[in-house]
Amino acid sequence: MIAVLYPVVAMVILLLQLLLRTHRSLSLLGVIHPVISLIITLYFIVSPGIWDDSPFFLIDHMSLFVMLTTSIIFAAAALYAVGYIDGLVRSGDLEKRSLRIFYFGFSFLLAATTMAIFTPNIALFWICAELTTVLSAVLIAILALKATIDASLKYIFICSTSMLFSFIGIIFLFEAVRNKTGVGSLLWTEIVDEAAGLDSGMVFIAFVFFFIGFAAKSGIVPFHTWLPLAHAKAPSAVSAVLSGAILNIGMYGILRMTGIMKETGVFGQVSVLLIVFAMITISVACLSMLRQKKLKTLIAFSSIENMGFILLGIGIGSPVALFWALFHMLSHSCIKAGLFFSAGILHRQYKVPTRTGEDEIGDLLLLQPFAAVTVMAGCAALIGMPLFPLFLSKVGILLAAAAISVWIPAIVLLLFACAGVALLRFYLPVMAVRFPAGEGPVPYTAPLSMKVPIVLLLLLSIMIGTVMIPGEEAFLAAAVADLGFGVQL
Prior knowledge:
Blueprint: H1 5-19, H2 23-46, H3 61-91, H4 99-118, H5 122-140, H6 146-181, H7 188-194, H8 200-218, H9 226-233, H10 236-262, H11 267-289, H12 295-316, H13 319-350, H14 364-367, H15 369-383, H16 389-402, H17 407-432, H18 448-466, H19 472-482
Helix pairs in contact: 1-2, 1-4, 2-3, 2-4, 3-4, 3-10, 3-13, 3-18, 3-19, 4-5, 4-10, 5-6, 5-10, 6-8, 6-9, 8-10, 9-10, 9-12, 10-12, 10-13, 11-12, 11-17, 12-13, 12-16, 13-15, 13-16, 13-18, 13-19, 15-17, 15-18, 16-17, 16-18
Subcellular location: Cell membrane
Domain NADH:quinone oxidoreductase/Mrp antiporter transmembrane: 121-412
GO molecular function, one term: NADH dehydrogenase (ubiquinone) activity
């Protein structure tokens, strides 16, 4: 069974990282792990005949899609970390004795994320999701600064407390199945099979409790307060993983649970609940972006906005809306990871945040022309400019929303305009700042390992936004069907 390679490779990598000592060997192992995971995932995608009904792994289009996104982001972040972490060590921002903790934690986080995606058991999914919170918090606090430790503790407190509600939801769901069959079940597939006959009141309560925890995991308002601080204070390689991969674990849980609700008589109430929280999340995030003066915080609030938009697609619940929600998930992950990588180059150049608490960026095109261009491209992609994939997913979800109410796309478009203004309001003045002669910093030369992932993610984003890869539409449609929403696109 090929799926067993995921945990086997992870255990081998983790063992070697405990034994080896040099930075070069640790960073190399950090790259090898996600690359092998990506290769295994691609092999699964092109070879559906090897999927089986193993009791240990849930292999379907939906899980493989999320794993594909996860592998891409982790691979890009691992390559970026080769030069980025080395720079932190050279500048004294990261102690050498913390290198093993960083790379071990990074690989362990990938392993926990992988098991969360593929576990067929909802309780084990909860455990693995909680484990990703703890491991992420360790990576956030790796620089051992007061600000990063505070951000890490806030992240753990909010997410872990909220996840206790999800555990209660799982208990309610187990009891609902037990009341019908006489034997409870925690398997995703068995719960879906029994969902139609479950007590409506109990399953709705189960969904509400479950949603609280995984909404916090995804940065959905009002459970989002940890996210701007954690993403802004973490090392940029970690910020990219948090935004591009770990947030998706929360959405994956919500998607799976919504698929169960689709088979019950309460899907209408669930849909309204998700749409309301989605609209609140988009509103708070876009309006908050208008007053941000720090780049990474601005990007973090954009992550909240996009998670809210994905939730809107899930809440609409039509096959078309879910198709574009998944498309948006992959696109946002690639774009946002690239932006955090570019922000990391600016961090090394300007040593932000500075003593004033704000980014003091100047002579941007002169000192960092590469980062200047890639940040500009990333901002254009987030706004949803044509050629970039978010343009397609935004149009697709808004058209699906119009079938429910014309007010939803009207309000969302207005909020998107606010987000676009916020990005331009930050970036354009920064481009005009000039340091007095002789007072500017020395140009920072970013190593190739930091630039290559940014270029690759940008090219991948443009390819996704302009070319329909053979089999892409059918695969996404099948992922939607795995959730029980049909394939009528």
